[in-house]
Structure formats: structure tokens, C-alpha cells
């Protein structure tokens, strides 16, 4: 967590637009609902802008978005920084050859899949999602990418807003892409 983003006045505005719903989808879960953020064009744009400002010009060629809420925040970030968008999807949604990674959620189990060949050896990637709870989904995404061409280097988490970006430096060229 970096100091400059804590101090950015846009952060507080973004935080106020995220609705917290107690006991959804089951007792004990404090659900962070980003649909209310999406209803406010300024707060939504501020959210995207914060990430674009942070990652533009960093030689990132891949934005990998985690289904489903990473599909909301990932594409506008990808377009703005000039990167391609790669969806990390729930099972049996992608029609081509895939690699899969299972993981445990706050309220269940799930699996992510990525198309083989969507990312080339040597590319630099950003993983985008709306929130970390247990971290299982993010770990699965990183394992998915890591099992293909990447070596994990750093995770960057905004912490004060429930949008997460994991940054992966791909330096292992162990596949045929
Ligand atoms: O840190 P974790 O414990 O792994 O939880 C975080 C994940 O849970 C939510 O997605 P969910 O699996 O509910 O899927 P959805 O976006 O399709 O609703 C959220 O969007 C993250 O992807
Ligand atoms: N607390 C939470 N709020 C929103 N989405 C979630 N996914 C897992 N835990 C969550």
C-alpha cells in the first residue's frame, strides 16, 4: 500500500460508493457491493483512473480480469494503458484449449480457466479483480499465470478500496506460448 494513494482525495469518494451488505450471501459475510460504485460515473471513472495512472507506461501488455467483477474493471484499464485483455473464466466457459486452477472461496470452492496461448512468453501482466477476501482467487489467478509462463514478483493491493491488482513479471519462458 503506497502513501500517495492513501492521500489521494478520490479514494474517500470511491469508498463511500461501495455498499456493504451484512450477511450476504450467507450469515457472517460482509458483502462489498461494487454495483453501487458503478452507478456513479465519477467514482467509477476515478477508480479506473487511479489504476491507469499507476500502471500506464510500465510496459504491461496483458490485463487479466477475473470473472466476473474483474471483467468490469479490467477492460477499461487495459484499453487505457494499451494492453490486451485476457479473461480468467469460471469452468467450461472458454471454448478453446484451457489450463485450470482450483481454489477455495470464503463461501465455497471454484476454479479459474485461461485460454492456452492468450499470453505470450515474456509479456508483463496485471491481474484485476474487485476484492480480496481470503486471497484464494488471486492466488489461483497467479498460479494459473505462473504455471504457464510467469514468475511471481509482486502483489499490489490498494487495501483502502476493494479493487485489487496483482502485478506479475513474466520472466520464465518455459512454454511454447
Ligand atoms: O479472496 P477470495 O476469498 O478468493 O474472494 C474474492 C473473490 O470473490 C468474489 O468473486 P466470486 O467468486 O464471488 O465470483 P463472482 O465475481 O462471479 O460473483 C470477488 O469478486 C473475488 O473474485
Ligand atoms: N465479502 C465479500 N464481498 C464481496 N464479494 C466477496 N467475495 C468473497 N467475499 C466477498
UniProtKB/TrEMBL annotation:
It catalyses: AMP + diphosphate = 5-phospho-alpha-D-ribose 1-diphosphate + adenine. Pathway: Purine metabolism; AMP biosynthesis via salvage pathway; AMP from adenine: step 1/1. It comes from the Eukaryota. Its EC number is 2.4.2.7. CDD domains: PRTases_typeI. It is found in: Cytoplasm. Residues 41-161 form the Phosphoribosyltransferase domain. Its main location: cytoplasm. GO terms for cellular component: cytosol. GO terms for molecular function: adenine phosphoribosyltransferase activity. One of its GO terms (biological process) is adenine salvage. Coiled coil: none annotated. It is an enzyme of class 2 (transferase). Keywords: Cytoplasm, Glycosyltransferase, Purine salvage, Transferase. It holds the Pfam family Pribosyltran. Homodimer. Belongs to the purine/pyrimidine phosphoribosyltransferase family. This is adenine phosphoribosyltransferase.
